[in-house]
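Narrative summary of target 7.
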Amino acid sequence: MYKESAINFKAINRLAIPAIISGIAEPLLSITDTAVVGNIAENSTESLAAVGIAGSFISAIIWILAQTRSAISATIAKYLGAKKLHEIDTLPGQIIGLNFLLSLLIIAVTMTFAREIFQMYNADGIILDYSVSYYNIRALGYPLTLFVFATFGIFRGLQNTFWPMVISIVGASLNIGLDFLLVYGLDGFVAPMHVEGAAWASVISQAVMAVLALYLVLKRTPFSLKFKRPLNKEIPNILKISLNLVIRTLALNIALYLANSYATGYGKDYIAAQTIAFQIWLFFAFFIDGYSSVGNIVSGKLLGERNFQKMWLLSMKLSRYAILVAIVLMAVCFVFYKPIGILFSKEPTVLKLFYDVFWIVLLMQPINAVAFVFDGIFKGLAEVVTLRNLLLISTFLGFWPAILISDQFDLKIHGIWIAFTVWMLMRSGVLVFIFKRRYLAKNM
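Modeled conformation, tokenized:
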């Protein structure tokens, strides 16, 4: 028999803490690349800018393709709550197979047009060359990353965040070590590879994570991952959910593209500073996303149980915990405000630009916390149309006008982060309003 879902501090953090650790491993890879590359002796600012531009595009592709993770998690959680897991035993293998074919197509197209893609980000000269060389290596890891994400969705659907944590710790630790080894080299053994070394470090780490994930899924879940016909009855629903989330993620990435494009247009120091600020923002996002993951995991199971009272209680407790974590992160960063910047760059102009906006990045964290928690809950409830429409509205009626107006007033990097703040305020406020209207009524 499956246990009834418990909504208390111990039960929530039993899922959230491993999810936080596994979640921050992903941005930790990018942060490590940023910090290591930003301290290269030659062309450090150009290298940092290139990793920021290419990394932004890589994140965009991965977020778009990885939306099946949330769909798998929500579907498995629902069937777990209804005690009907046997009805979807072929589903994970089929989704992973489709993801693999799609990732190969993405690799072929994007590598062919990599130079044109990064020219759209206003990159040129050395920055463009570095962006292309970094990307062409990192792109090889798409199938590996998508496979790992899919296995995380399987485990989370089964209410298990421990094994994703283990996989993430192994991958992050390996990536950090390889970053230093391959970027800087080791006298007499490994020649310095600079930007390309950072890319290879990520790909090798992703390969190790994929092997470990395969082993754990086969040993620790009821699923075999074999591609069996006929297609599972949930495939159309998974594809529908994923398509809506892809459209949502495209809107999200338009905002990120605009931010990096404007920053690059302002100059190499601006895009370097923007890269540092955004990597920290992303790190915080994935840290807080641990509670979002609990919302995704548990709300799907509660939906299967038709337990709306606990669903409302879940939303309140997750929001409080996530806001508390955000405040702690803010406090720590304000204490270490200056040293944090020095970790990433020693260039005075880059550091000044970063320090000028870092306080905005920090102050918006409680807003982000609420947005991410309800984002996870809505994913677990398969309310993907709502999430899709909200991102479209927030991006095209919030972020885009804000950055255009800010640019007209020559606010530059300040304007970029003002636009991000407007974006997150819209995302959090609307989700809370809709959730109250739809689910508080069912709780009355």
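The first helix runs from residue 9 to 37.
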